[in-house]
Each structure stands twice: as structure tokens, then as C-alpha cells.
Specification:
The chain is α+β, with helices and mostly antiparallel strands. The chain has 4 helices and 10 strands. The chain folds into 2 domains: 65 residues; 105 residues, PknH-like extracellular domain (Protein Transport Mog1p, Chain A).
């Protein structure tokens, strides 16, 4: 991949809940038919098309051989800016473009949140105090001005199925077709987004 963040991003999108195999320390998940691994800027898929359990040891040897040839590049935690409390495991995502965002939630046509221009964009699911599952998306732009322009553009291009119910200088609140709520908050050079909320923030 282009870099280690891109490799981790595609791995997280495809891996789901990880099933680990003893003897392989790199980030990976596996079943009888396929192993997926992530190390440095490499995302690796090993296929066992017939699902033969007897090939498990060979798959492990091959995986160890592959990752052993990939240099180690320490990667800072890309999710350190997201809250850790009540975070749901295996739901973290790295967003590099509009397609990745649209797989989570549709805010409008095209790259309405200018993900391609963002310095960093990540997301995770959480449990509310009431046991409601919601999603938080954090997008960090290079400048305060960039974030402000994107926030203004959202208000003009928001998807028609999202009904704006409250508009403030730094916060936009809307309701979707499922009668769930969403909020987009501007904070310096960042947009903090919450969707699938049971009720809006007062």
C-alpha cells in the first residue's frame, strides 16, 4: 500500500473481529479458507481455497516467511484522539477517501467532507450510557480555515434525507430517515461527528 496507515486501514475494513493464530505476532485474522495479515505498508491475503485443515501448518510457515521479510516500522496509534471509554472493539476505521466514509454513513454526494484533503480521519463505534450503539467520526484538517470551509459546505450540500433541526455557528444537528440523530461539531481544525444518536445534545 502507499504507507502503513493505508495498509492498516484496508486491513481493518476487511478483517472484522480478529481470529488469531498462536505463533504469529503480527496483526492478522484467519479461518480455514483465508488468512489476512498487516505489517508495515503491506496488506497480505493468503488463500486456502479448499479449506483443508491439514494446510494450517503450511499456511503458518508461509505467513511467517512473508512477514519475516517485511521491515518493522513502528506506527503511532491512529485512534489516540478518539475516546477509549465504551469503545466497541473491532469497529475502528481509518478513512482515506469518500468511499470509505460512505461505507459508514452518507452525508451527501461526492466528497462532501473533503476527506481526501484531511490530514487524518478515523472512526469508531461506541455504547451510550443507555446501551444505544452510536458512531463517532473525527476528521482533522491541515488548517482551521479548511475545517471552517468544509463545515460551511456541509450545510449547503447535506443529503436531502437528512433534515436539519438545529443550526449553530459551530454545530449542526440533523435527523435521518430512521429517526436517529446526528451532530457535526466544528472545533478549531477538526470536525467531530456523531451519528445514530437516540437524541440530540441539548
Amino acid at each position: 500500500m502507499v504507507d502503513a496507515i493505508a495498509a492498516l486501514g484496508i486491513y481493518l475494513m476487511k478483517s472484522g473481529p480478529e481470529t488469531r493464530y498462536a505463533g504469529l505476532s503480527e496483526r492478522h485474522t484467519m479461518n480455514r479458507y483465508q488468512w489476512m495479515l498487516c505489517k508495515g505498508q503491506y496488506f497480505v491475503i493468503l488463500n486456502n481455497l479448499e479449506g483443508e485443515e491439514a494446510l494450517a501448518a503450511i499456511m503458518l510457515d508461509f505467513a511467517q516467511s512473508v512477514v519475516g521479510r517485511i521491515p518493522v516500522h513502528p506506527l503511532p496509534d491512529p485512534f489516540d484522539s478518539l475516546p477509549k471509554d465504551n469503545r466497541i472493539l473491532h469497529t475502528q476505521r481509518i478513512l482515506r477517501g469518500p468511499l470509505a466514509l460512505q461505507s459508514l454513513y452518507t452525508f451527501g454526494e461526492g466528497d462532501i467532507l473533503q476527506i481526501k484533503k484531511a490530514a487524518r480521519a478515523v472512526s469508531s463505534d461506541y455504547w451510550s450510557k443507555e446501551g444505544k450503539r452510536f458512531q463517532q467520526i473525527l476528521i482533522c484538517y491541515k488548517t482551521i480555515e479548511d475545517a471552517g470551509l468544509v463545515f460551511q459546505g456541509i450545510q449547503k450540500g447535506l443529503d436531502p434525507y437528512l433534515s436539519i433541526i438545529d443550526k449553530r455557528p459551530t454545530r449542526l444537528t440533523f435527523q435521518d430517515f430512521a429517526k436517529e440523530y446526528g451532530e457535526i461539531t466544528l472545533s478549531e481544525n477538526m470536525l467531530q461527528i456523531h451519528v445514530h444518536l437516540a437524541c440530540p445534545t441539548p
